[in-house]
Amino acid sequence: MQQLLSPFTSYPSTLFLLNSHSFPPKRQFCLRDSLSSYTPPKMASFSGFIAKSQREMTAASGDTRGFSTLMEYAGKGGLDVGDEMLVLLYHIQYACKRIAALVASPFNCALGKHSGLTGVISGAGDSDRDKPKPLDIMANEIILSSLKSSGNVSVMASEEDDAPIWITDNGPFVVVLDPLDGSRNIDASIPTGTIFGIYKRLVELDHLPPEEKASLNSLQSGTRLVAAGYVLYSSATILCASFGSGTHAFTLDHLTGDFILTHPSIRIPPRGQIYSVNDARYFDWPEGLRQYIDTVRQGKGKYPKKYSARYICSLVADFHRTLLYGGIAMNPRNHLRLVYEANPLSFLVEQAGGKGSDGKSRILSIQPVKLHQRLPLFLGSLEDIEELESYRDIQQKVNPGMFSYKNFSRKILKQNKFSPTSFNIRKHPKKHTSI
Fold first, then answer.
1. Per annotation, catalytic residue among 161, 181, 253, 358
2. Global confidence as pTM
3. Residues 374-417: tens digit of each pLDDT
4. Is residue 159 annotated as a catalytic residue, yes or no?
5. Catalytic residue flag (residue 136)
6. Are strands 173-181 and 153-158 parallel, antiparallel or unpaired?
């Protein structure tokens, strides 16, 4: 092994036998010796660039405080969210830094082959694409460990768990979350994210058994959220959060390990020129949604400019772009989860001046009835969402996989006047989920 690791060892090539030509021996190269005499050029620090930029911006506005970290901005010198919330926030951001490193690791692609997690069953849903991946499970465990360490969380409700977890009796907060949204795209280096919402524990339920009070605490209406956020793992790691007084985004400085305030008080434009949706489902959409999309991309809507499509198929990434540029990010199918996806993101977009809707109602006003409850989701600019809702029929009620099997079978049987038992087909076929 020592011979293999030696920088001076040379090996004969077994691919090319050079008998007729001889070459002068190459000068041996030792990285250690080269580095000993190497003086690196002076390079600009990204953290220095951010600090300089923020100082210039704050100086221009008359603010002399300079740039802020997440903990400084949320602390007593800024929003003053309270000591208990600040401790919880510290542990959440610490967990997300670990997840960011995990997602960026060159070794995460091997986890699925060697983790032994293929048999894990999740409460997230029936579809194969929603089954937990090894990275999902690891991200879930990282966050659970951090929430336990904070000492301030009584309940954690996650996409990766069938039921909420009761952590401690004295924690003042309840955390709902999707630990790693979009993880099936990691092998293609497509952006992923963590979504979380924070409620206060309902002390009036403390007399109930742990399982029951954990479930009821996690099913609070979105109007009771005290904080929410997401972390985007992309070319930069960005934590965007709201504590009920605006929406703010912080970018991770890898040199210092701090989240630096880069987008204070985000305001989503009242209108955008971008819609984000899976256009491949166009022919499964209801008439109202098709009319809306056809209208805006021709520039014939209330906003007389042609809209463009931008779709990453990663909820956090599509939402983040929409929050900054305006427009709509949507999934018209009964697919996204109310408790730990729709509610936190709707809280954030409302705090930024936008709107979250299921196509008929305000998301935050919907009372959850189960942890993994699904619904259509439309998030974005206020005027764009209101124009979309005016078309009324925008919720996709047809499940393409189920539609193709059930209706085709019935049509064939009716045409040929056969009974279901002739082909040994059940009268009530097993539910099929879409791809």
1. 181
2. 0.77
3. 999 999 999 999 999 999 999 998 766 554 444 444 444 445 55
4. yes
5. yes
6. parallel
